[in-house]
Amino acid sequence: MIKPKEKLGINALDIIIKKEENGKKITMIGFFPRTQEIRLVAKELWILEQDPYLLNPSHGIILGTSAEYVIPKTNILVITGSSLINKSIERLLKISRSKNAHTIILGPSTPLCDVLFSYGVNMIAGAEVTDPDAILKKISQSRGMLSTKMCKNEIQFRVMER
Predict the structure, then answer these.
(1) For the whole model, what pTM was predicted?
(2) pLDDT tens digit string along 83-96?
(3) Counting CB atoms within 10 angstroms of each CB, which of 23, 35, 51, 146 has the fewest?
(4) Contact of 95 with 68, CB cutoff 8 Å
Protein backbone atom coordinates (compact mmCIF):
# COMPACT_ATOMS: atom_id res chain seq x y z
CA MET A 1 0.00 0.00 0.00
CA ILE A 2 2.98 2.31 0.54
CA LYS A 3 5.27 2.69 -2.44
CA PRO A 4 8.86 3.40 -1.35
CA LYS A 5 10.59 6.46 -2.75
CA GLU A 6 13.87 4.61 -3.27
CA LYS A 7 14.09 0.98 -4.27
CA LEU A 8 16.82 -1.57 -4.65
CA GLY A 9 15.75 -5.05 -5.73
CA ILE A 10 18.00 -6.93 -3.31
CA ASN A 11 17.51 -9.03 -0.21
CA ALA A 12 18.62 -7.29 3.00
CA LEU A 13 19.86 -10.60 4.42
CA ASP A 14 22.49 -10.61 1.63
CA ILE A 15 23.59 -7.13 2.75
CA ILE A 16 23.93 -8.29 6.36
CA ILE A 17 25.97 -11.34 5.35
CA LYS A 18 28.29 -9.33 3.08
CA LYS A 19 28.57 -6.25 5.31
CA GLU A 20 32.24 -5.59 5.98
CA GLU A 21 32.59 -4.98 9.66
CA ASN A 22 35.33 -6.55 11.76
CA GLY A 23 34.07 -8.64 14.64
CA LYS A 24 30.44 -7.87 13.92
CA LYS A 25 28.09 -8.67 16.74
CA ILE A 26 24.60 -9.16 15.40
CA THR A 27 21.34 -9.23 17.30
CA MET A 28 18.16 -10.28 15.54
CA ILE A 29 14.76 -9.56 17.03
CA GLY A 30 12.74 -12.47 15.72
CA PHE A 31 13.77 -15.59 13.88
CA PHE A 32 14.73 -15.03 10.23
CA PRO A 33 15.69 -17.41 7.43
CA ARG A 34 19.38 -17.94 6.62
CA THR A 35 20.41 -17.69 10.27
CA GLN A 36 23.15 -20.27 9.73
CA GLU A 37 24.75 -18.13 6.99
CA ILE A 38 24.64 -15.09 9.25
CA ARG A 39 26.11 -17.10 12.14
CA LEU A 40 29.13 -17.96 9.94
CA VAL A 41 30.03 -14.29 9.35
CA ALA A 42 29.24 -12.96 12.82
CA LYS A 43 31.58 -12.91 15.76
CA GLU A 44 28.48 -13.15 17.92
CA LEU A 45 24.83 -13.74 17.00
CA TRP A 46 21.91 -13.41 19.38
CA ILE A 47 18.32 -14.05 18.38
CA LEU A 48 15.73 -12.55 20.71
CA GLU A 49 12.51 -14.49 20.40
CA GLN A 50 9.05 -14.25 21.99
CA ASP A 51 7.96 -17.81 21.15
CA PRO A 52 9.09 -20.00 24.08
CA TYR A 53 9.08 -23.09 21.83
CA LEU A 54 11.87 -21.64 19.67
CA LEU A 55 14.22 -20.82 22.57
CA ASN A 56 17.62 -22.50 22.49
CA PRO A 57 20.25 -20.65 24.56
CA SER A 58 23.07 -22.92 23.35
CA HIS A 59 22.36 -21.60 19.83
CA GLY A 60 21.97 -17.99 20.95
CA ILE A 61 18.16 -18.00 20.80
CA ILE A 62 16.99 -16.31 23.99
CA LEU A 63 13.95 -14.49 25.34
CA GLY A 64 13.13 -11.09 23.89
CA THR A 65 13.10 -9.67 27.41
CA SER A 66 16.93 -9.81 27.24
CA ALA A 67 17.02 -6.84 24.85
CA GLU A 68 18.40 -4.35 27.39
CA TYR A 69 21.36 -6.65 28.05
CA VAL A 70 22.14 -7.80 24.51
CA ILE A 71 21.45 -4.82 22.22
CA PRO A 72 23.97 -2.42 23.84
CA LYS A 73 26.74 -4.90 22.89
CA THR A 74 25.68 -5.24 19.24
CA ASN A 75 26.96 -3.61 16.04
CA ILE A 76 24.08 -4.65 13.78
CA LEU A 77 20.51 -4.85 15.04
CA VAL A 78 17.90 -6.55 12.86
CA ILE A 79 14.32 -6.02 14.01
CA THR A 80 11.36 -7.88 12.57
CA GLY A 81 8.64 -5.74 11.04
CA SER A 82 6.25 -7.61 13.35
CA SER A 83 7.61 -5.51 16.22
CA LEU A 84 5.35 -2.72 14.92
CA ILE A 85 2.38 -5.03 15.36
CA ASN A 86 3.31 -6.35 18.80
CA LYS A 87 4.22 -2.80 19.96
CA SER A 88 7.81 -3.56 20.95
CA ILE A 89 9.53 -1.42 18.30
CA GLU A 90 9.62 1.81 20.31
CA ARG A 91 11.51 0.16 23.18
CA LEU A 92 13.90 -1.63 20.80
CA LEU A 93 14.72 1.54 18.85
CA LYS A 94 15.31 3.45 22.09
CA ILE A 95 17.84 0.82 23.21
CA SER A 96 19.57 0.75 19.82
CA ARG A 97 19.93 4.54 19.68
CA SER A 98 21.76 4.55 22.99
CA LYS A 99 24.44 2.28 21.43
CA ASN A 100 24.23 3.71 17.91
CA ALA A 101 23.99 0.24 16.35
CA HIS A 102 23.33 -0.10 12.62
CA THR A 103 19.59 -0.75 12.82
CA ILE A 104 17.58 -2.61 10.19
CA ILE A 105 13.83 -3.24 10.18
CA LEU A 106 13.29 -6.34 8.08
CA GLY A 107 10.53 -8.64 6.94
CA PRO A 108 7.46 -8.82 4.73
CA SER A 109 5.33 -6.92 7.28
CA THR A 110 7.76 -3.96 7.29
CA PRO A 111 6.14 -0.80 5.91
CA LEU A 112 8.43 0.75 3.30
CA CYS A 113 7.98 4.19 4.78
CA ASP A 114 10.90 6.60 5.23
CA VAL A 115 9.46 8.08 8.45
CA LEU A 116 11.23 5.20 10.25
CA PHE A 117 14.57 6.88 9.48
CA SER A 118 13.67 9.72 11.85
CA TYR A 119 13.59 7.12 14.67
CA GLY A 120 17.21 6.07 14.13
CA VAL A 121 16.65 3.26 11.64
CA ASN A 122 19.44 2.92 9.04
CA MET A 123 17.74 0.46 6.67
CA ILE A 124 14.16 -0.54 5.95
CA ALA A 125 13.75 -3.83 4.11
CA GLY A 126 10.48 -5.38 3.11
CA ALA A 127 8.70 -6.99 0.24
CA GLU A 128 6.45 -5.65 -2.45
CA VAL A 129 3.77 -8.01 -3.70
CA THR A 130 3.80 -7.81 -7.48
CA ASP A 131 1.04 -10.38 -8.10
CA PRO A 132 -1.58 -10.09 -5.31
CA ASP A 133 -3.95 -12.69 -6.79
CA ALA A 134 -1.24 -15.35 -6.93
CA ILE A 135 -0.11 -14.57 -3.36
CA LEU A 136 -3.66 -14.77 -1.99
CA LYS A 137 -4.11 -18.13 -3.70
CA LYS A 138 -0.85 -19.46 -2.24
CA ILE A 139 -1.70 -18.19 1.25
CA SER A 140 -5.08 -19.91 1.13
CA GLN A 141 -3.45 -23.17 0.04
CA SER A 142 -0.55 -23.11 2.52
CA ARG A 143 -2.36 -21.97 5.68
CA GLY A 144 -0.68 -18.56 5.60
CA MET A 145 2.99 -19.54 5.54
CA LEU A 146 4.97 -18.71 2.41
CA SER A 147 8.62 -19.09 1.55
CA THR A 148 10.56 -16.87 -0.82
CA LYS A 149 11.15 -19.92 -3.02
CA MET A 150 7.39 -20.42 -3.34
CA CYS A 151 6.82 -16.78 -4.29
CA LYS A 152 9.84 -16.02 -6.45
CA ASN A 153 7.80 -14.32 -9.19
CA GLU A 154 5.13 -12.72 -7.02
CA ILE A 155 7.27 -10.84 -4.48
CA GLN A 156 10.05 -8.32 -5.04
CA PHE A 157 12.44 -7.51 -2.17
CA ARG A 158 12.85 -3.81 -1.49
CA VAL A 159 15.47 -1.98 0.53
CA MET A 160 15.59 1.67 1.56
CA GLU A 161 18.69 3.13 3.20
CA ARG A 162 19.22 6.35 5.04
Answers:
(1) 0.83
(2) 888 888 999 998 88
(3) 23
(4) yes
